[in-house]
Specification:
With about 475 residues, the chain is mostly helical. It has two domains: about 200 residues, MFS general substrate transporter like domains (Growth Hormone, Chain: A, Up-down Bundle), CATH 1.20.1250; about 230 residues, Growth Hormone, Chain: A, CATH 1.20.1250.20. Helices cover about 75% and strands about 0% of the residues. The chain has a two-stranded antiparallel sheet. Strand 1 and strand 2 form a beta hairpin. Helix 3 runs antiparallel to helix 19, helix 8 packs across helix 9 and helix 16 runs antiparallel to helix 17.
């Protein structure tokens, strides 16, 4: 019997809607719990250098921004239930493998795990690259989730209650992200670096629970029509890339996201190396979504009469302030601020500014992007609205690895604590680089707005004369 989607404005939704949202919460808890410390896992557990860890993490993040549109086209043909089972099955295998791999490396005598990790040839061995196929499994599995869950919300709601349906969906995303990041600190406190391994078992448990939730309770008889082919998606990508205005905007906004990605690329290693092992990078990262949730409604209302480009430009000028605050902690008196190391305290301040900037930029970017799409093709175009995150993941994480290696290296590269302390004396230079990137991006957006306004005014003049 098909569940009825009410045409009335209501908070009552079909069972499948709630199943989809609960498994989304579980998946987000798994992902953010792992991703917020992914560079620590790669370096402290698998022996990758800062540069290698940055590049691998960047490609993982980039794939998860680029692949969903293609995965969504496949899911339309498979059916949502089969696609979700495939996705959660792959994610469970991937996260479980991240838990199993260190055990296999230890049994091979390449590493010894405990609160402290002792490497015995792993850093020079090819065995650490076994993580790459695991990464690909997680990337492919995760790419199905976003398109399928959002598609399910669309099919399980009516026009009357769709807005409320998506508000519930975004609440679940943020609850999952917050809970996943929160579990990291107690695991590290109780198990040391071994907690970075056990964390993957938690993630695998979350996605396995989601798998069974879909298997037993996902019963939707409605499905989105499979109107998109892989050829359609590829042609849409080529069309987006052929539009000079869109590509220019994507490249400019990439600067914002390069800085925003440092929440995961640079921040965890930076605060632990500068503020000590008692710092809580996973908890600091939660400041970002908290600020977004608290401010996005107010900012949207405040900027309602301002153009999308104007709102984005204001947000872009907040980002250099954010990066400068992150740098300031290492230039201050080392005395604690409100019980926190100055590096940790100013990192929290910087992350708060980052969240505020996101409230000005992200919603309005999607609005502007959609308006550039040909009528009737908005959906396909919006599928590639995150190309900026694809590019910025590779560039931002890659750059982070090089900067950490140069200005805030790992202690195991030095014979004495004094040598290590001297090597990271100018660690704040890392954030000066991102101040520069954010400032150049903000100024570029001002120039972009001026040029596009002139172009639009020039294009409008012939029609005005004709009328």
């Amino acid at each position: 019997m098909t569940e009825h989607v009410s045409s009335q404005t209501t908070w009552k939704f079909p069972k499948t809607f709630w199943v989809a949202n609960v498994v989304e919460l579980l998946e987000r808890a798994a992902w953010y719990g792992v991703f917020v410390v992914i560079t620590l896992y790669l370096s402290r557990i698998l022996g990758y250098s800062d540069i290698e860890a940055g590049l691998l993490s960047g490609f993982l993040s980039a794939g998860l921004y680029f692949l969903p549109t293609f995965s969504g086209a496949i899911a339309d043909h498979m059916g949502f239930k089969k696609a979700l089972l495939l996705a959660f099955g792959l994610l469970t295998i991937g996260y479980a493998s991240m838990w199993v791999l260190p055990t296999l490396l230890e049994s091979a005598g390449l590493v010894s795990y405990g609160r402290e990790v002792e490497f015995m040839g792993l850093k020079e061995s090819w065995h650490k690259w076994l993580f790459v196929p695991i990464m690909l499994v997680i990337m492919i599995g995760g790419s199905f989730i976003k398109s399928v869950i959002t598609g399910t919300v669309a099919t399980e709601t009516s026009e009357a209650n769709r807005a409320r349906g998506y508000s519930i969906f975004y609440a679940m995303v943020n609850i999952g992200a917050f809970s996943g990041k929160t579990i990291v600190k107690p695991l590290r406190e109780s198990l040391g670096n071994e907690g970075l391994v056990v964390l993957n078992l938690f993630a695998a448990g979350m996605t396995l629970l989601a798998f069974f939730g879909v298997l037993f309770f996902f019963r939707s008889e409605r499905r989105r029509e499979a109107t998109r082919t892989m050829s359609d998606v590829w042609n849409a990508l080529l069309a987006v890339c052929s539009r000079g205005r869109l590509i220019t905007l994507i490249l400019i906004i990439t600067g914002f996201w390069m800085v925003q990605h440092q929440l995961y690329a640079t921040m965890p290693k930076y605060v632990l190396r500068m503020a000590g092992e008692g710092a809580s990078p996973s908890w600091y990262a939660n400041v970002n979504p908290a600020v977004v949730v608290l401010t996005v409604g107010f900012v949207t209302q405040l900027m309602r009469k301002v153009s999308a480009l104007g709102s984005m430009t204001l947000g872009m000028f907040i980002m250099p302030v954010s990066a400068f605050c992150m740098a300031a902690g290492n230039m201050m008196n080392p005395e604690p601020l409100l019980g926190l190391h100055p590096v940790a305290f100013m990192m929290i301040v910087g992350i708060a500014f980052q969240g505020l900037a996101e409230s000005f930029i992200s919603p309005r970017f999607l609005e502007y992007f959609s308006l550039q799409a040909p009528r009737g093709e908005e959906g396909l175009y919006l599928g590639f609205s995150h190309l900026h995150s694809f590019i910025s993941s590779i560039l931002g994480f890659g750059l982070s690895g090089f900067l950490l290696d140069k200005y805030c290296p790992s202690a195991d590269q030095f014979a004495t604590t004094a040598e290590w302390t001297a090597a990271k004396a100018n660690a704040h230079y890392i954030w000066f680089v991102f101040v520069g990137i954010a400032l150049v991006s903000a100024l570029s957006l001002v120039v972009f707005g001026w040029i596009t306004r002139r172009m639009d005014e020039k294009a409008a003049k012939p029609s005005e004369v004709a009328s």
